[in-house]
């Protein structure tokens, strides 16, 4: 174990030295997801983000092994993450240039939730605050329990990982929230909920796992109640310039390596998300690039991985988690190049749906 830990330390610190000044947008995650090819698209032409792909565009065409891989990854890595970082499996939100200690990081993760709610202008007055919430890709339910507490709302979460489902429910019981927050294994692309059920539809860093972004947003819109707010915080690639048909070859190459190593499906741009939301007649569509605001987070994750506890836990956790840690430098490169963007996209389902207007969420835009 000591030799392996030393080797891992050497690989991690060679690739990513914490003392080295990192680009402000150097955000990534320890945990990879199951691998596919990466393609780019021209956002002005099609909402199918990865253009010619036959697999990325169809709801029933998730690449073989993708869901199982994601489930396996989070089954394997969630315990390690919780033991070091706690119940929130998402980035912190920081002021630009902020230097942060470990306790600041935990606060920054809560701040990420609050910033997303504020950006989307979710009401918190007793009449209009959300009373029903779905947390799509909930990790171990940190956001769900926070939102259930904040609003006194009923919160339902879905994940692909059975280990996360069990842990989410156990934490809800420990925190006295079993009647408010419940978690189950289910696919975000085929949610086990009726139409129009939730006042707030929440997806914090799960969209990047979805092989079909259009189906993903369609499902978010389908389960949203008329007038409900939809919040997506996710990794994107940069928007293409009007003169561009695709990302540059070196960018495509970098994304491909990240996809291969992290087992990620095709990415899309913030513009692609906006076009999908528009195609579904969603309203008040807003987006922002928060790459600068998450910059301090991943250097801190690397530092925590380079401690004795981090290294030995990593070694015990399994190959998928180790592979994710070793590939982090490629993500840093992506942020340095301005290729990878930490993005928020918010919108609202029209009230019109309850007044006999056409249904907002249509299954396809092409
Ligand atoms: C990085 S974690 C996000 C955790 C959580 N939202 C948080 O903020 O703590 C990504 C989550 O997305 C879930 N996920 C990925 N693909 C999914 C899918 N197709 N359906 C449901 N959940 C999915 C994973 O199981 C995992 O729980």
Automatic annotation (TrEMBL):
Residues 223-232 are annotated as: SAM motif III. Residues 134-232 form the Methyltransferase type domain. CDD domains: AdoMet_MTases (cd02440). PROSITE patterns: SAM_GTMT. Residues 133-142 are annotated as: SAM motif I. Keywords: Methyltransferase, S-adenosyl-L-methionine, Transferase. This is Methyltransferase type 11 domain-containing protein.
């Amino acid at each position: 174990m000591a030799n392996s830990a030393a080797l891992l330390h050497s690989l991690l610190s060679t690739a990513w030295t914490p003392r080295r000044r990192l680009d402000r947008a150097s955000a990534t995650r320890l945990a990879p997801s199951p691998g596919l090819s990466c393609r780019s698209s021209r956002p002005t032409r099609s909402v199918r983000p990865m253009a010619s792909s036959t697999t990325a565009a169809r709801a029933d065409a998730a690449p073989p092994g993708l869901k199982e891989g994601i489930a396996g990854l989070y089954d394997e890595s969630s315990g390690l993450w919780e033991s070091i970082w706690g119940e929130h499996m998402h980035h912190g939100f920081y002021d630009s240039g902020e230097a942060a200690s470990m306790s600041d990081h935990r606060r920054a993760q809560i701040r990420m939730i609050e910033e997303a709610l504020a950006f989307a202008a979710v009401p918190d007055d007793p009449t209009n605050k959300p009373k029903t919430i779905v947390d799509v890709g909930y990790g171990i339910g940190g956001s769900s329990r926070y939102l259930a507490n904040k609003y006194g709302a009923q919160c339902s979460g879905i994940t692909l990982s059975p280990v996360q489902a069990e842990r989410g429910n156990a934490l809800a019981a420990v925190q006295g929230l079993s009647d408010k927050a419940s978690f189950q294994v289910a696919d975000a692309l085929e949610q086990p909920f009726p139409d129009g059920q939730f006042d707030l539809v929440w997806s914090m860093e799960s969209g990047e796992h979805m092989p079909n972004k259009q189906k993903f947003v369609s499902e978010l819109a389908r389960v949203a109640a008329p007038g409900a707010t939809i919040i997506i915080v996710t990794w994107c690639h940069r928007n293409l310039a009007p003169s561009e048909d695709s990302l540059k070859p070196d960018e495509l190459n970098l994304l491909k390596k990240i996809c291969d190593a992290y087992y990620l499906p095709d990415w899309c741009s913030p513009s692609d998300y906006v076009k999908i939301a528009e195609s579904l007649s969603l309203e008040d569509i807003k987006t922002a690039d928060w790459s600068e605001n998450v910059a301090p987070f991943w250097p801190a994750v690397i530092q925590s991985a380079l401690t004795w506890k981090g290294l030995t836990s990593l070694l015990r956790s399994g190959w998928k988690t180790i592979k994710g840690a070793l590939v982090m430098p490629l993500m840093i490169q992506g942020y340095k190049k301005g290729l990878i963007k930490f993005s928020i996209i918010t919108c609202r389902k029209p009230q019109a749906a309850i007044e006999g207007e056409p249904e907002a969420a249509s299954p396809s835009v092409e």
